[in-house]
Amino acid sequence: MTVIGLVLVTGLALLLVYETRQVLTWMVIAAFFATALYPAVNWVEHRAAWCRRWLATLLVFLAFLAVLAGVITLFVVPLAHEAVRLADQLPGVANDVQRGRGPIGSLVEQYHIRQYIADHREQLQGYARGLGAPTLAFLRGAATTVAGVVTIFVLAYLMVLEAPKLVDGFLALFPERRAERIRRVGADCARSVTGYITGNLLISVICGLATYAVLFFTGVPYAGLIAAFVAIADLIPLVGATLGAVVAVGAAFLHSTTAGIVVLVFFVVYQQVENHLLQPIILARTVALNPLAVLVAILVAVELAGILGALLAIPVAGMIQTIARDVWNERQGRLKSHPTVGPQETPADVAEPPEARPGGNQPPVRA
């Protein structure tokens, strides 16, 4: 009966995790944001004696929202201009496509796309009529995303606000020495997460601004839209920058061969600068991971959680490395329960005395 009860409880727990996976995902994201903002709240609370915990938390979150709004505005304003420009140019682009002129029109003529559309008109119309359900799914997903963002913000705020009580209550369950060790390891993990989040965001902003400057000076249309996509894609470790570069270089070659070559050279140079200068300077002191460990962590995380896993793979791997290093160091500092002698790990209590061994009075080496 005990075994059956444990199996049932485990099954119910797994079912509960599966059914609430979306909420749990929001909680994980909120925990990472709370970990990143927690040191800032502590700094404000300690620097300003008149500032209570709730006020320090509110001020930090308002500052975070202001910075986030500024970054979004930095990208949204160019996107709005590009959207208006695209709407104005759509009739001309459609006319060029019909007449086989311009970069898109020449591609249509070269690959006989217009003839393909004419031959498969009914099939394409059927696909168009079936877009109603995906549109509704998209709107439903957008509403869920908005609700998720609000929920993550509220959860992160409450986590930061109540963090001291929660941490003190949890550490009170352990002896003083063990509690101090847990607090130290937790602080190291928090620094790893904070450093990665802020560093990765800074690198993405630099990548987006540099891409926008190059596309703007080469005259590539929709530079703001492409630069925003490159900046967002750059948040994904390893493959994100390459994915954004492919899109930007393709758009530049559609504009002109010269622009395509310039943008291609820019991304080749920038990739080297980011990999060998920006990332070591910004991330080396916070998340010092082996490249192989980074790749394995990303592959496993993508398989388990998709894009979210890719974004959180490196900080999670950094936390695992910090905990494993602490456990290893603590283990290395312990005496063995049974002292041994020599490279063969011979128990010291059954080893021959020094006088009986060749070499005489050499004392045994105890591990």
From TrEMBL:
**What keywords appear on the UniProt entry?**
Cell membrane, Membrane, Transmembrane, Transmembrane helix, Transport
**Taxonomic superkingdom:** Bacteria
- Give the signal sequence positions: none
| This protein's GO CC annotations | plasma membrane
Q: Where in the cell is it found?
A: Cell membrane
Task: Identify the stretch(es) annotated as Disordered.
Answer: 334-367
Determine if Disulfide bond is one of this entry's keywords: no
Any GO BP? transmembrane transport
Q: Would the keyword Ligase be found if you checked this record's keyword annotation?
A: no
- Give the bilayer topology: Multi-pass membrane protein
Q: Which residues cross the membrane?
A: 23-44, 56-80, 137-160, 201-233, 245-270
- Name the family the entry cites: Belongs to the autoinducer-2 exporter (AI-2E) (TC 2.A.86) family.
Protein's recorded name: AI-2E family transporter
Q: Which organism is it from?
A: Dactylosporangium matsuzakiense
